[in-house]
# Entry
Amino acid sequence: MSIDTNQFIIACVVALLLAGVLVWLILRQKKQLKKGAKPDRKSEDRPDTQDASRQLQLQAYERLILLTDRIAIPNLIHRVNQPGLSVRDMQSLLAMSIRQEFEHNITQQIYVSPEAWDAVRNFKEQNLLIINQVASFMPADAPGIELSKNLLDLLVQNPKVSLQNIVSEALAYEAKKLM
# Structure
């Protein structure tokens, strides 16, 4: 079954809106750095505390980059694929896996900027939206492999639908500012 044109357009619009917000955030941060504005750091009173805090922040960025990789649709499909599932079962399994990965890393938000956390959260929501949109256009009892195929086809037809690279680059950029 091929992907419906309306579904493709909706996914593209959502992806482009989210990508635009992320690009704006990155450009704003670069502009602040050029002006000499320093990132918010409240523990500059003791070098030991500052080093420990910076290490925790770097580890949080590493974990969030790993999270974005784990919840990227192609990687997720490869990891959780089980033969014999229906479309609805596969949809549920993919959504549950994304939510579990996200919940497992939710505490990392206290170590990263609000913009970085928003980017990760938006990526999670975008992936859930794409999975649910594609599945909604398919018969519930169709084989789950068809959902996987349609999701991968959507990403191949328009790689910009996925925000994974943009989010990973934004996280890496912020991590590099700490080093």
